[in-house]
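User: I'm writing a short report section on ligand binding and want a predicted complex to refer to. Could you take this sequence and guanosine-5'-triphosphate and write out the structure as tokens? A short remark afterwards would be nice.
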Amino acid sequence: MIIKQADFICSSSKTQQCPQHKLPEYAFIGRSNVGKSSLINMLTGKKKLAKVSSTPGKTRLINHFLINNSWYLVDLPGYGYAKASKTDRSSFSKIITDYIECREEMTLLFVLIDSRLEPQKIDTEFINLLGENGVPFAIIFTKIDKTGNTKLTVNVEAHQKLLMESWEELPPIFYTSSETKAGKDDVLNYIDKINSSLI
Ligand code: GTP
Ligand code: MG
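Assistant: Sure. The structure tokens for the complex follow:
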């Protein structure tokens, strides 16, 4: 799929304020600094579409981007950031839990995981929360330009082993680098396939 047009639509501080539409919506979530905003820029080929920072906690709101006038990409705030508010249920902020529990327009959630790291408790907790809420998701291992092949294999296998403890089937898995554009076609073709199946 080729992205011809990518437009910022709005930032929302609550799920209830997000735009109402009937188009497919794909959201990006993961720990602060994992590379959500960078990936949106890489996929759309627009370097400044989503705000990026080396300091965690850059994205604070729910940001909607309209793609080719026919579907949305959504940049969400990260979790696991020290200043994020703690809820009784988990260490995920209300803005995130509300979005994943209530956003009916969401077609699929991409959960981003830093490929350099071995499994982190907070990612596992988040993925289990998706299971409890029946949220469809896929996993993207990010920053693969910074991870050697051996390390990547070891980390991915450790994640897969952990996932198989709670899930009967593994979700779709992608590998990306916003620096080298690795994985761009894989992610976009996957979205395209889902969009086509919805028509
Ligand atoms: P929050 O909005 O704070 O939750 O972070 P985020 O997940 O949106 O991360 P962001 O895209 O702002 O990137 C965080 C840092 O990682 C920035 O310094 C990026 O330049 C860097 N980064 C993101 N993706 C990649 C990648 O694929 N490769 C490399 N080498 N650096 C990356
Ligand atoms: Mg961000």
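A remark for your report: The chain has one domain: 6-198. The two ends are 16 Å apart (CA to CA).
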